[in-house]
Amino acid sequence: MNAESDERAGESADGKEAELGSRAPEFIKSRRSLHLSWQVGVFVVGLAVVGAGVVMLPLPGPGWLVIFAGMAIWATEFVWAQLVLRWTKRKVTEAAQRALDPKVRRRNIILTTIGLVIIGALLAVYFWKFGFVMPWKIDE
Questions:
Q1: For the chain, which terminal residue's Cβ has fewer other Cβ atoms within 10 angstroms, N or C?
Q2: How many CB atoms lie within 10 A of CB 78?
Q3: Which of 22, 26, 12, 8 is nearest to 81 (CA)?
């Protein structure tokens, strides 16, 4: 979904909101015990994917992407997950549009430049005062 798209998060191409609720096949929804076991299975698979994403946050890997994939799995069955995904998509789209605003981009470039100048000045003072010394002793 690109930023110029007329489609909103959670809406279909014809402008109607996507239906909330289970997307299980009708023969599963028609039997209560089968539908309950389907929901448990979807929850367990989604929990495993979200758990893997949480583990990937401090470790190498696409942690947030995997967490959102787990949420998408949950959203196939649970209304609360569908609402969370709609809210997240809306916020991400708004943030992307704000980031493309020329005033915001200019401000971010100025702040980044100021930060880099401050870091450079601090490094220069450190090297002037202590010199460039390796953290281990090679001479010994």
A1: C
A2: 19
A3: 22
Q: What is the average per-residue pLDDT within 38-59?
A: 92
> What share of the chain in percent tops pLDDT 70?
78
User: pLDDT by residue (tens digit) across 107-134?
Assistant: 989 999 999 999 999 999 998 888 877 6
List the one residue out of 45, 31, 51 whose CA is nearest residue 74: 45
3-state secondary structure (DSSP) of residue 17: strand
9 within 8 A of 86, measured Cβ to Cβ: yes
96 near 3, Cβ under 8 Å?
yes
DSSP state of 18: P
Q: Residue 30 in 3-state DSSP?
A: coil
DSSP lists the bridge partners of residue 11 as: 17
Burial class (CB in 10 A: 0-12, 13-18, 19+), 133: exposed
Burial class (CB in 10 A: 0-12, 13-18, 19+), 43: middle
Identity (one letter) of the amino acid at 126? Y
